[in-house]
Amino acid sequence: MPRSESAAATRRGTSAWRDEVVASFVVFLVALPLCMGIAIASGVPPALGLITGIVGGLVVGLIQGARLQVSGPAAGLTVIVAGLVQEHGLATLGLIVGLAGVLQLVGGLFGGGRWFRAVPPSVIHGMLAGIGILILGSQVHVMIDDAPRGSGLQNLIAIPEAIWKAVTPSATLPHQEAAAVGVMTILTIVLWMRFGPARLRKWLPAPLLGVAIATITANVFAFPIAYVTVPENLLSSLNIPTVFSVSQLPTLLGAALIVALIASAETLLCATAVDSMQGGPRTDYNKELRGQGVGNLVCGVFGALPMTGVIVRSSANIAAGARTRWSAVMHGAWLLVFVVAFSGALRLIPLAALAGLLVYVGAKLASPAVIGKLRRYGTGEVVLFGITVCGVVAIDLLSGVLIGLALSAARLLLRLSRLEMFVEQDPTNKRTVLHLRGAATFLRLADVADQLESVPPDHELHVHFDELDTLDHAVLELFRTWADQHHGRGGSVVLDWEVFEQRYHMQREKGQLGRQSEAPEKEHNQLGGNHGSAESQRSHPDSHYVEGNRRSTS
Q1: Could you tell me which of 446, 401, 431, 327 has the C-alpha nearest to residue 70?
Q2: Which of 204, 311, 350, 353 has the most crowded CB, counting CB atoms within 10 A?
């Protein structure tokens, strides 16, 4: 290689690594406050959120299937984790997260990654919006240095009370000071996102700036509010799982399955969004699911929070110029260095500032803007979204998602039951024409049978199915059985069985089916046989029933 080309290649390589380092530092600045805030919202020490962020970078970043995706603790799991900690205790969290990782790893090994893409977007968005509402409802109380209520609905109902505490002076309780810190954080984020110079926003993310300004203000004025607690030694904050009895396993497996399903769905949804933001290699969904499984297994060993792929950090990674997986890996290294070397600085951060950040995150998750996007696909998608949101908020996360999935399946069954049938009778020529349009499935089997039984026994039945979209095995067998019986009564059926079966197998598109049907029709014409098109059927007054190599003439 000439010296000039070698030098140019070296400069390109140096520039590429510089871009990765810059992007990793930007992602670190975004991730730092979010890791702590999500941990607090989940009811666990902030250090456990930081450990998950570190594992998401140093471990998952090396083996993930979505090279530009960033993994770490996610707001979408806060409600579930908080409930698990409340029900089973913090000591059991690591076992549940580790089991969830095993389930994800097994799912990825057996090709389960693609199945999570089958969840309807309206249900996913409804789940995220419901989570956003629950986060907002709980963190409003933390933002005024008050305790969240017992349930999501109770948190929402008590918001007016929280606002009253925030605006009412108190000589003994610091609600006003904490509320001022939280509101300052939110206003800083919103104003910086809206009016901050783009070049500066790249280096100084809005969440970090909001928390930094609120922290400086709280410490300068010595507000008597709650602050983050972080141990001097990160190792002392590890939440190593305790030994459990076999009798606990079914309960823990059930909890782990919920965590694995939600985390996998959120991760792969994020991966799809990341693919749409960049033009490089697409996500290997099974590899990504395996990587997340390994990551959650490691987090389970440390007793940390579960992780997912997260869109806020991933989009910041791409916007900062990342091109490879190394930016995600290095962001984990930055987190580790900061926690080890500067843990004292974390103790200066007010909890109200992190709660304000999460109120903003919750409001973004619950943004009504998604309704406008879903409306383009029909009112049904919006209704499904709304019902999922209500289920998540009013009952719990799993119930809301299951309700959304059940209604989505019911809608699919309704669509599969839409079948139009009409019959043309010609008594003079003893000819009946049956037109089928829509979906002929077992849901309408009785109606199809009624139409066939209405055909006079000595008539020739022509079946027109050009506009038939779906045909299932039950209806196909009904036609076969009825055709044999009708032939025995002296009638006949004119139907291209080869093309009819192709509709059942759904192996070719409609246009291909039409082209392939031409050859069988010509062959059947030469035999004086059966045809699927209306024109060919009208040209054949002779009645024949053909199936495979068998032909019966009435």
Answers
A1: 327
A2: 353
